[in-house]
Amino acid sequence: MSKTDGQEISLVVPVADASHLARVLGTRDEYLRFLRKELQTQIVAREGGFLVQGTEPHARWAADVLSQMLNVVAKGGSLTASDVRYLLRLVQSGQSVETEDLLTQTVFITERGKRIVPKTLGQIHYVRQMKEKELVFAIGPAGTGKTFLAVAMAVAALKEKTVTRIILARPAVEAGERLGFLPGDIYEKVDPYMRPLYDALYDLLDAEKVSRLIERRTIEVIPLAFMRGRTFNDAFIVLDEAQNTTPLQMKMFLTRMGFGSKVVVTGDITQIDLPRSRKSGLVEIQTILKGLPGVAFVYLTEQDVVRHPLVQKIVLRYEEWEKRGKESLRGRGDSGEE
Questions:
Q1: Alpha-carbon distance 329 to 65, whole Å?
Q2: What angle do the packed helices 81-92 and 30-39 form, to 10 degrees?
Q3: What does the pLDDT look like over 90-107, one tens digit per residue?
Q4: CA 148 from chain center: how many Å?
Q5: Residue 229 — pLDDT band, cuts 50, 70, 90?
Q6: Which residues contact 13 (CB under 8 A, 6 or more apart)?
Q7: Which residues, in sequence order, are bridge partners of residue 238?
Q8: Which residues contact 235 (CB under 8 A, 6 or more apart)?
């Protein structure tokens, strides 16, 4: 029998292993205090489980979140404050049944022992597609883990010896003609544009190991233009910031794929830096390759932002602002017609 909203209820969430309790509570009961405040619900940790008391549906949401948190910890996962916030959003939207692999599906373990895991439902889908498909396009706003998860999958594949090298590429669109004014040779000129890819590598491997792999060309971090005329066999290839490729550049890149290779293309079609007169290859390719076997398009949203909570709100505000701007332009265009 369903409970009526606003009705007072009491629920018990059992804890099978007492050693998991502290990890669910958080530092100084941080996670527990967060749930109490957000849901205006009494939650008491006691031997054998949690006692939850409050009104429907808030008390049930709290019990569901605690169950999800215990599931994560039982599978060896760890929790952060942002993880708890995300679990609460899922429960409130009725999506908790989809969280079986959330925060527990290890992509890679860094040399410092940190487990890299998908932290949102969108990221779980993204990782699954990278495992299953030869060519994956990940499209979404900043902070959704597009690049970092692709590089983590590439490093994991190298470690497992399913590929023999990693190719990380980016178009150096902003450089343009100004490259000649920068000091140093061509590699030094484009290095600032490749820096986010290096940052991802350094988060996964120690700096000395990254240097050795780059010296041996096991890992190449290169501008997109440097890929012309080459074919990459047994490689994991990542193209970042693909919204800044032209259709011809996108075609050139995709045809570099050799036997035994996997390709991941990431980009944010709301942040295209190309001149207005030039089409984005990432926008066009969605139509060209739609429905092609072996190819997947993954669309991440502001719900998949895993940076500071404020970043998610900023992304959402920008999307709302841009939407209002487009509607306003359409309105002015319509009013000018006879």
A1: 43
A2: 30
A3: 999 888 767 777 888 899
A4: 7
A5: very high
A6: 49, 50, 52, 63, 66, 67, 70
A7: 168, 264
A8: 163, 164, 165, 166, 167, 258, 260, 261, 262
